[in-house]
Design brief:
By secondary structure, the protein is of the alpha/beta class. Helix content is 26%, strand content 26%. The strands form three sheets. Strands 3, 5, 6, 7, 8, 15 and 16 form a seven-stranded mixed β-sheet that branches. A six-stranded parallel β-sheet has the order 11-10-9-12-13-14. Strands 2-1-4 form a three-stranded antiparallel β-sheet. β15, α10 and β16 form a beta-alpha-beta unit. α4 crosses α5 and α4 packs across α9.
Amino acid sequence: MKAGFVKAPFKFEVRDVALREIKENEVLVDVKACSVCGHDIIMASYGAKEFVQFGHEISGVVEQVGRLVKNVTVGDKVVLESGTFDRFSDASRNGRVDLDNKGPNFWEREGETMGFAEKIIVPMEVCVKFDGISFEAASIVEPMGVALDLVKVADIKLGNTVLVMGLGPIGLMAAKMARATGAIKVYATELPDCKTRIVLAKKWGIDGVFTPDNIPVKVDKVLVTAPPTVIPTAIEACNIGATVAFLGIAYGDAGVIPLDTTKIHFNKIKIIPSHASPALYFPECLEFIKTGMVNTQDLITHTFTIDQLIEGINKFREEKETAIKAVMVNV
């Protein structure tokens, strides 16, 4: 079978690889769609020192199940949680499954296939059945769960004003959810050359899109999907008592930023991280797609097959003006 590999800086390969036998608690999934995540680009830019398989926003069809698997059967359509909680952990048994990210996953398995492949073997616990939407749409559920976690962490109330910093797919979906949650005004920041994202933001009802260095509003909640270097700017856009929720990640020195703690203190500003691991809220997100609350088709600007992986991802990277979300589709 074919599988994609990545190595920094921006080297991609498609190889023929062997597939092992599945274990009694595992599922073999025929991958039908896998979308490109910002983390995939981080791996390609500097994160992967050696060639590794990649891709974690996956939908497909169950091809084979181990003898202990009861939650899915052959032929089921499934979307895959990248990792789930350990149901036996203290945190989970205390009702805080969101604090446990040590459960079954398909990340920490050296030599195993990931989403950019024809097939993937996964723990049974990460399989979530779906129907009624396309495989491409279902591949957006994993990042949609990330956006929903950010909105939930920010605790948006009816009548709040919201600023979303960064209009990638997660930022766009978070803005749509913020409005549905009850925000009376939703604003955003984005770079001027990301024209398609700005057009879609306005189509989706965002009240204003500003450049990151010129934000003329003060808000109750700021949702940061951009790198953490923008958090000081987010604080400047806060009303007294506001909340800054962030999920942008940077590694090494890039993750260390100066903060004006005096301003945070006297303005009673909360800064809260959103880290959507374990992956949660997939049933909610599937309903958002089915009901049309989030139109995933608006997000998908690029598609390619496994054979077109190298050209497809590079084209997506190069076409910044039009790029929002790229999806590999296996037919």
